[in-house]
Write a structure and sequence with these properties.
By secondary structure, the chain is of the alpha+beta class. The protein has one domain: Acid Proteases (Cathepsin D, subunit A, domain 1, Beta Barrel). Helix content is 20%, strand content 41%. The strands form three sheets. Strands 4, 5, 6, 7, 8, 9, 10 and 11 form an eight-stranded mixed sheet that branches. Strands 3-13-12 form a three-stranded antiparallel sheet, with no helix packed on it. A two-stranded antiparallel ribbon has the order 1-2. The protein is globular and about 40 Å long. The N and C termini lie far apart (64 Å). About 24% of the residues have low confidence.
Amino acid sequence: MKNALRYWFKTINVTLIAVMPTLIFLPLPQRAIAEDPGACFMITTSGKTVGLANLCGGITITPPSNNNNKVFRIPIKRRLGGTPIIDVTFNDKQSFEMIVDTGATGTLITQSMASTLKLESTGLMQAQIADGSQVQFSTGKVKSIAVGGVIANNIRVAIAPKAGIGLLGHDFFGNYDIKILEKEVEFHHR
């Protein structure tokens, strides 16, 4: 029995020695708690992550993952006629509520938004609105539009003098599949 125990202990010691280096050198899960931007953040045009906890007041946004199945989840603040309204950040500074308009080819902002952004008119655009009529809008160019981790740069936007709220269109989310849930909008990277 003693020989069997000695053999067993020697086997365990050899096994532990063989296993220990494997455990030490296996890659650990990538989790950088110290660098976690929190639930509310934005990514600048240079790729820098900036925490926005002071501005968000309890908004929960899932940060982008490092895999190919990126999903950005944005909370719905409220709905207008059943259509979701979310917070959208312009030029890394100003946030506005906007309607996620899956039927709009372009992004439309209000005159008040344009004034806040100090946006100058750079041209005109003809557009067909939901009732089929043609209207003309002034246009301007914004440096960036961001929602969660989704960012679009140098976007030409229409400025609607009579609109009460802006519309976020396909020029912003065209590279994403959108899923509208009860309490959030998901942007699935294609």
